[in-house]
Write a structure and sequence with these properties.
The protein is mostly beta strands and about 180 residues long. The chain contains 2 helices and 12 strands, in the order ααββββββββββββ. Bound molecules: fe (ii) ion (FE2).
């Protein structure tokens, strides 16, 4: 069931681009499901001020955040991917701005991490990348640079990574590579 809070004239229908999405979020519009993001086509040009890459790892770049949400641009060199991780029990929506991504879903139970599904997310497609108790890998399967827009409600300060060597979960504090277009050390 589709639900959205309306604040003034800001509704899901006039969210067409990054600027109006940020405006809606900063004015308290709540997104309850993935349908909210499906019709938004974010162009690489709109996010270019927030894009920073690192050849050793994907980067997390904060576009905007409040106590209720966090909007991040993740930048990926060709073939970069995450480890198996969870989301600290917060929901996340992903919109692929550039590139093609593969998501592998896992279920963790009784100390065992089991792969349950794989699906690709193409440019301009959105996905709710997991339910609150599952784990996943996001992988830029293109040899070229990719960008994904991630909306978390609420913000995530830490998350659990699965250490494949020790076969155990580790809690890691998350950080930003840049904040509102400014590169952080
Ligand atoms: Fe994730």
């Amino acid at each position: 069931v589709y639900k959205i809070n309306t604040v003034g004239s800001i509704t899901k229908d006039n969210i067409k681009n990054l600027k109006s999405l940020v405006n809606a979020l900063e004015n308290g519009v709540a997104f309850d499901d993935i349908e909210s993001l499906k019709h938004i086509e974010i162009t690489p040009e709109e996010v270019s001020n927030y894009a920073f890459w690192n050849k050793n790892h994907y980067t997390r770049n904060c576009i905007s955040k409040s106590k209720d949400f966090e909007l991040l641009l993740l930048c990926w060199e060709g073939n970069q991917k995450t480890k198996i991780h969870g989301h600290d029990f917060q929901q996340c929506w992903v919109n692929v701005v550039k590139g093609e991504f593969l998501e592998t879903l896992y279920h963790y139970e009784n100390g065992e991490m089991n792969e349950i599904n794989q699906s690709s997310i193409a440019k301009n497609e959105s996905a709710s990348v997991e339910d609150v108790k599952s784990f996943h890998i996001l992988h830029n399967i293109s040899p070229d640079r990719g960008m994904t827009l991630h909306l978390y409600m609420k913000p995530i300060q830490k998350c659990q990574f699965f250490n494949e060597d020790s076969q155990s979960l580790e809690t890691v504090n998350l950080s930003y590579y840049s904040f509102k277009g400014e590169r952080l050390e």
